[in-house]
Amino acid sequence: MKIKLFFLLIMITTIGFAQNQVNSFYSTNGFISRPVTTPNTLNQSAGGINQNWNFSGFINLGTSTYTNVAPTTTESSTYPGTNTVIVTSTVQGPATTEGRIFTKNTAGTVSITGLNSSGLNINFNGGSGGSGNATLGAFPMVYPFTNTDNNVSGNYVYGTNSGTFSGTLTTTVDAYGVLNLPDYNYTGNVTRLKTVLSVTLFLSIFPVGTASQTTYAYYDPNDPTNNFKFRSLNTIVQSSVAGINQNDTTFEIGNVPVLGNINNLFQSVWIQNPVQNTIQINSASTIENANISVTDILGKTIFQTKNEMINGTFEIPQTLSKGVYLITIGNESGSITKKMVKN
Fold it and tell me: Higher model confidence: residue 83 or residue 290?
């Protein structure tokens, strides 16, 4: 009984344009992410403001493509209230799998109505009038947002296994800060969305196990594509009746450039850290018509200049307060963002 598929495919969330705000549940059509794995332990326990997350050691496993479509007549009947279906196509090696997440968006309030993937069918049809739907809450969600749906319920079918479930879904915008993905040469201001789904599994009227998933998803508020930069999903399923004792975590990288494939012009850029009273940009390549901007971890622009030439060492006299900053250097050929620290 692949309960994991159920929880793995539920949490597809996206961000819009405001700082520390999750604007929308739906990603850009055609969004491509990378399922990855890592032997490293990633510490995501801390919430709150001004966090600094450093995640590395990832190995690419394949690609996943997300598209949003209207439900068919049959889907609308099977999952009442559905008005958008999120289709996920994942390629890993020679294998391609597809998942469909059924959602209901009522005046900005988004709920999950169902799921169909690889022979697994989940229907959040417990109660009446959609009362069993898994409701995330109303978008946009601004830090510190929280919403708990205590009425999640429905039924599942997978092969010869079937039954019902009920429980809770808690959604929070629980943190913001700086995300560092050195394997992908990405550093950026992000807002984090956390979801915790916890249900009891039933066979007839008898409880036969429990299942939960904790999801952390990180979004760049300056990225207008509404796509996550990093996401992790920890799934725990325990059912002695079905012989399941599962505890595993999956990771996914958003559409950030792979290290080594970014424009060579910016690969050699490095910043002298810690910063004193001068910001020192170093580059082995000559960068013409460079636009430079410095922001704090809240996204406020501290400094910007345009049409500069960086040849060797470029210095910017600038007195900064103690803290962490991001500096972006770019032109028509591309851009790169680096972290700066003022002690």
Answer: 83
